[in-house]
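pasting input
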Amino acid sequence: MNARSFPLPRYLALFTVAVLMLYPLLWLVGASFKGNAEIFSEVGFWPSRFDFGAYAKGWKTSSEYTFATYFLNSFAIVVPRIVVTVISCVLVAYAFARFEFFGKKLLFGVMVATMMLPLIVLRLPQYLMFKQLGWLDTYLPIILPSAFATDTFFVFMLVQFLRGIPRDMEEAAMIDGCNALQLLWHIIVPLLKPAIISVVVFQFIWTMNDFMGPLIYLASVEKYPVSLALKMSIGATEEVEWANVIAISVVALVPSVLVFFAAQRHFIEGAASSGIKG
Amino acid sequence: MYENKRLGFLFVLPFVLGVLGFKLFPFVMSFALAFTQYDIIDPPEWVGLQNYRELFGHDPLFVKSLGVTLLFAALAVPLRVGFALFIAHVLNFKLRGINFFRAAFYLPSILGGSIAVAVLWRFVFAKYGLVNLVLAKLGFEPIAWLADEHYSLWTIVLLFTWQFGSAMVIFLAALQNVPVSLYEAAECDGASKLQQFWRITVPLITPVIFFNMVMQMVQAFQEFNGPYAITEGGPLNSTYVLALYIYDQSFRFFNLGYGAALSWVLFALVAGLSALSFWSSKYWVFYSGEKDQQR
Amino acid sequence: MAQLSLNQIEKVYPNGFKAVHGVDLEVRDGEFMVFVGPSGCAKSTLLRMIAGLESISGGEMRIGNRVVNGLAPKQRGIAMVFQNYALYPHMTVYDNLAFGLRLAGTKKAEVDQRVRQAAQLLEMEHLLERHPRQLSGGQAQRVAVGRAIVKKPEVFLFDEPLSNLDAKLRASMRVRLTDLHRTLREAGQPATVVYVTHDQVEAMTMGERICVLKEGVIQQVDTPTALYRQPANAFVASFIGSPEMNIHAAQLQAQGGGIAVLLGGVALPLPEAKAQRLGRRDGEIRFGLRPEHISAAPRNAGDSFAVPGTLRTLEHMGNEVFVHFDIGTVPMTARVPSDELHGLQDLPRGAAHAFHLQMDCCHLFDADSGVNLLL
């Protein structure tokens, strides 16, 4: 649609909404530098002076461990999970998008259905299963299911992406004598790069944010990831040191924000296209 | 090579195992558990339909929780989807800085599920928090968002709506797929911008509206982080969504059979609503799809 | 049913690019006017400016006798047929046709009557309940045309409507459209049509008058015959006619009592009448001759001049042959009826043969501006 005049109302509307949306975040960052008193009295987000004290105190926390431990824990969960997710989802998506096999239609239907399944129904039985296996208080219950392509959203996204790629190069490679794994590694994976980046980014952020999983499975505080540690710092006492909590919340968000901006272009388009062709 | 059925199955094997082991098996187990009384320490004891009878007949907390969950979904889903569509529509033209706006609206939906944001939210709606400060500046009375049972649900609803970015991005891509010439033809036919939106744009993106609605609905019924961290289900259970109730019964009170029964009620609710949506989609969703030639 | 006048129409884009330069044009009431030109010549831009989909940067545009510069498409009394048909996919054919009328609040009975009348004219009554995705290309195009007819506009605008169809279908739709134009005229509803195409065959067969455009400037507006026989400049001469007119750089030189054109090392004597028209006797020039005015054997028609040529290839078209040969180093194409080849087909590549140029049909264009010097 061609705008005949400068679309001022549109820009205004968008800008207003953007400010409303982002202000809480801006405010959060600003508040991390303020003293408790100022937090509760000022609407403006710019602090009167920059006090890094809250960061130091928040980092140390009131528990025996600093946030260094908690962040390391988070990464110890996130990194392996991303690796196994990418590997298993790419393999499975490749199968759905290219191959013919027994029960393909049925399995695809199951995949779409599980995307809409409320996870909560499975939490309890999964907990019991993992308890039987003796995996409680480890990271295995969180990481392992992803190794079996159970994050069906990613499989779906990769399948849609692959469907849009013509088979010409694969056919040429087949004539050259490639087997399936070689095809996958040399041809498919490079073509899938934008989608794989999307998977990595989403899984990173979702796992960093994952709360209920660690809540159910982890008992020892020393194993807590950032999400649990954060909740701990506001649940424990009556009097909450808000400044510290806010500071550490900001720090908790930093990795996700960084990853988001680094790969922004790629992964927004990936998320969008999976919705369209659905 | 792609016709090699065994090879194909081999590639998809991890998924088959995963679905069987981590989805199907727990699913069946959950169904069975609902008919038992189980507290982890002693072995499960079969009680037939007792859990369900108690649930439907003698559990006011369940009724309250169900009501809260339905209310939450009824408020939050239309708000989120509506906002997403509206902003996507406003965003849909050749605009300098579209990437900035897109990222700005999308960011909250990424961060929103984290505890950090829940903490922030609790803070923003506190008695002397940001929202009340702004209200005071505008001359309104402060509202006890977190302490007043009439307003507490709104904090969760607003958090959910704040995360409209993911749905918006999907709408935006759909809107950009509508050919410009259709709008031009409509303009030549005499349609105003508003008429173009309702008669051309919306009908053509009904599949995406449908998809978003269903996905957001499923998400809304599972909402946990917000109610848990911000309001802890209160005050007076006004934000005690079913997900919280299930968690409490299963993992705090170790009333596993009852928890399983509750989760199945939730599942049935979601499945029922999804089925209803699918059935109704026949009437209002239009798939333009591939051309079916008929000479 | 109204005339269309464009007065010094200009289009300048925000980045400063001037797409349309001072266009003056009168389209008569009920006339079928074709805009033709290579891509980038701004023909579609001009059409969209008439429609109201692009703003007019300068000049005045009138439909009927109203100035329409600032008016929205709906208020101009135009109907447009888009290149990709732009049918509303979620509505039936009937609803597609009725959409505009319903928006205007037309009574149901009248809507029905107009829709069915248009459907009848286009022989698509049986398609009314179908959806666009169930239509073939040709049927979809007819619906797009029907949508325009239903509105009873003052001016019909067509934006390359046939370019998405295959060749055979294009040919039959061309005939259908010109028939339709004639039918409407005979029924007392003459339709003023502006039709944009890049295909000069479409232009020549359909247009009552053709407007040739190049880079936003009108080159010539005339009937097909006039464009063909009296092109205003070298561009029009080479654009119209297939195969292209042979146009090459040459020199004028005095010869005997008259003028000769030096081409590929051969001096071609210019007929008296043309020499007089020309006015000068030397300098650079561009020489043009249509392929059908070159033959393989001497002609009885006047001013036929024989030149020595080197044969390159023959393209057999069935009833005629395109003969490609060289005069010196200058490549030429002749169009010879199959039964007048006189043994040319047996000659090897590179063989020498005399070709006969009909000089009284030649054209001379200015070496720099390309203007036809003999008009």
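fyi The interface with chain A takes residues 53-55 of chain C (CB under 8 Å).
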